[in-house]
Write a structure and sequence with these properties.
214 residues; alpha/beta; Rossmann fold; six-stranded mixed beta sheet; four-stranded antiparallel beta sheet; 7 helices; binds adenosine-5'-triphosphate; binds magnesium ion
């Protein structure tokens, strides 16, 4: 079953065509990479799918076309987004509150939320960061926390923009372990050739606003 798809997606910014007729879909549990040169439109593509950028064409969640802001609010409950720049994503006073935010918004009980948060802190080996303000984290710590706080949402699909940038070997391996184990569908935008080689999933390239499989 296709969870998320786009049809004839076009984005124009300041009269420049940034995305040109992009067609794409991802099934439940499917995991894919998108690579391609700087400025090709990869981040714009993910932001458009999340409903942050005006577009023409169609974005569909489980077959229904999304049009209004409230349609995209529904999408944002089942599609998680890890920003290219963690500073655009992290906002809560502490790491623990950051991780708890999504499951609390979902309406889960306090005890269920703390179970999910504890499990996630343990999995990513970031328990020592629990009470740290997110603005005091190092670059690599911010990166891993920004992934962890999308994981606590338990989304059906996760879009990740350059998730391995700045990670040391230990954290890189941890992310790979997560990518392999998760049941969520994954769309990973990356320049990390070693990551693509290691996981061996289907690859697409975005060039000049056009997406094609390679
Ligand atoms: N808000 C904006 N205003 C003007 N131009 C924009 C805006 N957002 C993106 N662009 C332009 O759209 C093009 C695609 O940018 P985008 O960030 O999607 O590229 P990318 O493929 O993610 O690149 P990178 O690999 O460097 O992250 C660039 O030429 C960029 O300058
Ligand atoms: Mg980008």
């Amino acid at each position: 079953m296709e969870i998320l798809s786009v049809k004839n997606l076009k984005v124009k910014i300041e009269n420049r065509e940034i995305l040109k007729n992009v067609n794409f879909s991802i099934r439940k549990g499917e995991k894919i990479f998108i690579t391609g040169p700087n400025g090709a439109g990869k981040t714009t593509f993910l932001e458009t799918v999340m409903g942050f950028v005006p577009f023409s064409g169609e974005i569909l969640l489980k077959g229904s076309s999304l049009k209004t802001e409230s349609d995209f609010n529904v999408l944002r409950k089942s599609v998680g987004y890890v920003f290219q720049n963690p500073d655009d994503q992290l906002f809560a006073p502490t790491v623990e509150e950051e991780l708890a935010f999504a499951p609390l918004v979902k309406g889960l009980s306090r005890s269920r939320v703390s179970e999910i948060v504890n499990r996630t802190l343990r999995f990513f080996e970031i328990e020592h960061l629990r009470d740290k303000p997110t603005y005091k984290l190092s670059g690599g710590e911010k990166r891993i926390v920004s992934v962890a706080c999308v994981v606590t949402m338990e989304p059906e699909v996760i879009l990740l923009d350059e998730p391995t940038t700045g990670l040391d070997r230990k954290r890189w391996n941890k992310l790979v372990e997560f990518f392999e184990e998760t049941g969520s569908s994954l769309v990973i935008v990356t320049h990390d050739a070693e990551l693509m080689e290691r996981l061996g999933w289907k690859k697409f390239t975005m060039e000049n606003g056009e997406l094609r499989e390679i």
